[in-house]
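Hi F.,

I've been meaning to write this up properly since the lab meeting, where we talked about keeping a consistent format for the predictions we share between groups. The idea is simple: the sequence comes first, exactly as it goes in, then the structure tokens exactly as they come out, then a line or two of notes. No screenshots and no reformatting. I'm using this chain as the first example so we have something concrete to point to.
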Amino acid sequence: MSQFPITDKTKITRLPKRGVYDKETVYKILDEALFCTIAFNLNGQPFQIPTGFCRLDDKLYVHGSVGSHYMRELVANNLPVNINVTFMDGIVLARSAFHHSVNYRSVSVFSKATQVTDPEKMDTILEAFTEKMCPGRWNDIRKPTASEWKATMVIEFAIDEASAKVRTGPPVDDDEDYDMNVWAGVLPLQIQKGQLTPDPKLKPGVDVPSYLR
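Output, unedited:
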């Protein structure tokens, strides 16, 4: 898989060795993330909107209410956005306070929003979004009605400019500090599924589906 072109916006200038531009790595991080932050400037005021998203090929998709102020503004004003996802994979515990760090994976995408209006495409996107959040769920649930679709807005972001930044590995201490009697290493962090909590209004006799076990 090819690399994204390095632009003034995507070039990693601080610790450039951590910069990653290959599409496989960028897409893998995006696909693992369940939500992103969309940053933009509207009339001189900066905003950041956290939201769920999904990727299909070289596009990111977000959906919401047709009354969503930020979505309508992004489309109507052709506003540039910065979309970011970040995973904190571990706390890096060094021998000195200065060299403490974190292991992380992050992706930044620079793009503009386009509204999706084709009904079949919108249906495909919502299915992909649902399956990303909970694989196997789409075939188990009621599909959107015509009135629900009328109340839904879907926007698309082309992934033309993107880069990742990644840190892995142990702490890097000053040479003289390695003789200190201080534990050093990495405290791993990860997202885990918790115990299912059934809806109080769940119909009696409905079992937990296999894809949730």
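Notes:
The beta strands are 19-20, 35-42, 45-52, 54-56, 59-65, 80-93, 101-116, 152-158, 161-167, 185-188.
The mean pLDDT is 97.

If this format works for you, I'll send the rest the same way.

G.
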